[in-house]
Design a protein that fits this description.
Structural class: alpha/beta
Radius of gyration: 22 Å
Helix content: 25-40%
Oligomer: single chain
Shape: globular
Low-confidence stretches: none
CATH class of the largest domain: Alpha Beta
Number of domains: 4
Largest sheet: 6 strands, parallel
Bound molecules: 5'-deoxyadenosine, iron/sulfur cluster
CATH architecture of the largest domain: 2-Layer Sandwich
Mean pLDDT: 90
Amino acid sequence: MGNAFYIKTFGCQMNIRDSEIIAQSLYEHGYIESDRSDNADLIIINTCSIREKAEQKFFSLLGSLKKQKERNPQLLICVAGCVAQQLGPRVIERMGHVDLVIGTQYIYDLPQLIKQCKSENSLTELRDDYQIPRYIPSSSLPKKAAEPSSISESSRFSRFVTIMQGCNNFCSYCVVPYTRGREVSRNIKDIIDEVKVVVDSGVKEIVLLGQNVNSYGMTNRVSDEIENYRFSDLLKEVSSIPGIERLRFTTSNPKDLSDDLIHCFGKLDNLCAHFHLPVQSGSDKILRAMNRKYTIADYLARVEKLREVSPNIAISTDIIVGFPGESDADFVQTMQLLETVRFNSSFSFKYSDRPGTVAHDIGSKVSESLKTDRLQQFQKRQDEITLEENQKLVGITLPVMVEAVAGNDISGRTEMNHIVHCGAGSDLDQLIPGEVIDVRITYAGPHSLKGETY
Ligand code: 5AD
Ligand code: SF4
């Protein structure tokens, strides 16, 4: 068998980071990455089960690989990620051409499991007991920065660093606590070492990752080192590592957002003025049913404080419409919240019933057509607000981190996370991704800005 692997990643940043870890451990075992599935000897699909649609996309990709497996029985197909964790052996029962199914906590063991699988035909490796956290094995983490790979286009200048895994919140609609297990915070030293390795390799932007970064250090800890150490402490420590131009983090649950973290925005120069703060709904009744553990008043107080400390901060959010029991009046409250906060942008979704979650068993489901109407209504108004907020930037000069240079065109990102396109002047043709340049904004659209350099 050859040694070319192809990896397809669905879902969130955590999955992207996990795929990078998988890729790196495969490089270290002599594999090379292919950007096409049809000439690969090993195909890994890193799956997402947050909504039904993501799961369907995975099954249709998997179906399309059946023929390739028939042509080449030596091909190994591995299913990883959240669907793997949830369905386990049922993936192989449904799709007999799958060789290996690994749960979310087994990515570090992949090269060994592949070896084992070759001698055992098919293999499923999962953990069933979520009450016992499995610590990220620091010894098995890469010692040097991975080469930029096709997994994440931005990996040359921006990298994710996982600070914690899992989630303890059990929001009633969410599969994550079941697919990723209990919350575990990594050791400070492991995180700092990983950031340093990555920054030494020339990366300019670090994004700290966790399902709920605000509770870093509060739950299961790898060691006592982080007993009284909070996310804001970690952020300050990472921020001071030389060479980091931009620091971001995601995701935060509003219920754990501390004043200390909010004040970081006034203090840390390289912390980007962008906060992704998922609210999910504008109705206290629905928030209670979602088990979110905050009220709209709490949320608004946090937003106000953030804007006091950092007046230009961009606030984005996640919204679910059509949660079971969501009445017209509840949805109106979500629309009102949008008017009150004026989110710079948002990700909004129709509620998707996930097996195994508490909301799955709530009776009063909202019809598909009503969910579609509400989603369209929300997104239409959000687009208008995004455009209005973007238009306020016309005429202003903003620092933009270059992400891509194609001929005379540059695209990049503001601190607040707007995508910016501009022409490259003659002295800018040497630009490389990761450099920060001043751009005067000349035009604002709903999804991006245009500008000029001096
Ligand atoms: N249905 C719809 N959206 C969901 N999300 C999580 N679970 C579901 C679900 N069952 C959304 C939430 C979360 C984002 C990552 O995905 O808004 O913040
Ligand atoms: Fe899911 Fe809630 Fe945990 Fe986010 S905080 S991963 S929505 S359970």
